[in-house]
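Sync notes, pocket subgroup
Present: LS, DG
LS reminded everyone that the earlier model was apo-only. Rerun requested with zinc ion included. Inputs:
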Amino acid sequence: MATMRCVVVREHGGFDRLLQEERDVPTPRRGEVRVRVRAVGLNHLDTWVRRGVPGHTFPLPLVTSSDASGVVDALGGGVDGVREGDEVVVLPGVSCSACEACQQGFDHLCRRYDILGESCDGTAAEYVCLPAANVAPKPRGLGMEEAASVCLVFQTAWNMLVRRAELRAGETVLVHAGLSGVGSAAVQIASALGAQVIATAGGAEKCRRVAALGAHYVIDYRDADFASEVRKITGKSGVEVVFEHVGEATFGGSMKCLARGGRMVTCGATTGGDVGVSLHQVFFKSLSILGSTMGSKGDLRQVLRMFDQGRFRAVLDRALPMAEVGEAHRLLEAREALGKVVLTV
Ligand SMILES: [Zn+2]
């Protein structure tokens, strides 16, 4: 039987826990397609799977990574609408498709929801088999490497801003780390929705790139206290929406930035999740704190059509060979990358 290379985590720890292993090339089951992977997109989630998260159990061993692009090279039985040779991107959330949440189009709220590379084997492999519902046509304007970098972060940012915070044209949103994966997606989505975008970034070069993505104001958080800058920019009134994913390092300041009736939406806690929240602040200012994880496949397909129409850009820092996955993790953790990092397969 033919074998393939993949990246596997068997035990949590440092970069040396990213093992390159050989496995049999999988055969697609009924309803599945097999994708010959060309590029694998990395997310911060990859680094959490490798490092481990206190209080959370990952089902190790796991093939890592959630995002990928490639070419369909085999079909299981009963697959309609996908053909061999199709260039596709992988939709990173797998659901049962039968429960009430799935049938309402909230497949990311399915109790049997899996994120590739987090709760089931992921995309960092030469071949991957997936339900046919988990591939979508690659947007025409994107190369394979770019296409591998967009799904998880755009799906996440879209669900946060559109579904949870219900950001509207004319409102002002603060986006933290505007050149990070979810940050760069949020800046573009918020700007496309007609909102005024204030973003933060660390250093002049990152700030310049965030402005080029459509942010109206960019605050260099190394030089200035972002909360006082937001106060100045908004004439003391604050922002309607804060897009949070940083956690402990920014949450207190983010709360101060909210206008009365403002919405805080969060999908992550890169710097830690234990934030003190003053209930007085929450009820006196009529604030909402909204959590969000992933997003629906339907919304992601809509985002991919917007890529097809040229309305969004992939923000790619670099592509590395799959064997250099450790270096890719290092770049993410050191925040050295000016955009997404992908692996070529
Ligand atoms: Zn379901």
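DG: The first strand starts at residue 3 and ends at 9.
LS: The domain at 3-150+314-344 is CATH 3.90.180.10 (Quinone Oxidoreductase; Chain A, domain 1).
Action: DG to write up.
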